[in-house]
Amino acid sequence: MNRISDRHAVSQAYIGLGSNLDNPASQIRKAFEELARLPSSHLLAHSSLYRSAPMGRTDQPDFINAVALIETALAPHDLLKALLEIEHFHGRVREYLNAPRTLDLDILMYDRLQWNEDCLILPHPRMHQRAFVLQPLQEITPNCHIPGHGSIADLLAACAGQQVERE
Questions:
Q1: Span 127-133, mean pLDDT?
Q2: I need a surface site. Which of 47, 99, 143, 165 has the fewest CB within 10 A?
Q3: Catalytic residue, candidates 101, 111, 126, 166
Q4: Catalytic-role residue among 57, 106, 112, 130
């Protein structure tokens, strides 16, 4: 288990996980283990696995999704770089927008930081509209409040038409 250095500020980050290729449930479980081994980080919690239909391009397999909560001394961009390395290790190929994928890892929230740059927007710009993110997030943090968007209960109610099933 990695210990966080006392010299660095410690933050909490929520990570969204998704997969719909090459045994998606196994991809997510392995990713939980890899998140637990991130440098200067500690896995605090993770949700159950959830099945959801694809959004955007619907001519692909259903997704398995989850959310993890980590404590980390990694800065947001360093955390993003580490997540992209895990995706690459899992064989992630970015052929086109909303393509099927072996593993997708997104920083959903990093503390209460609101950040908008080309390669990193926090909180994640569409998380508040996606039941497949909100439901597992609510499982591990029932009273979550998404900066700039509101309470998770209200946001989930607005996504009531989206089918998400706990595995």
A1: 97
A2: 143
A3: 101
A4: 106
Identity of residue 34 = E
* Catalytic one of 6, 92, 94, 130: 92
In this prediction, residue 2 carries a pLDDT of 45
Q: Which two tokens stand for residue 5?
A: 């250095």
Contact 48, 139 (CB under 8 A): yes
Specify whether 92 is catalytic. Answer: yes
Burial of 166 per CB tally in 10 Å (0-12, 13-18, 19+): exposed
At 8, the pLDDT band (50, 70, 90 cuts) reads low
Catalytic residue status for 94: no
Give me the catalytic one of 29, 57, 104, 111.
104
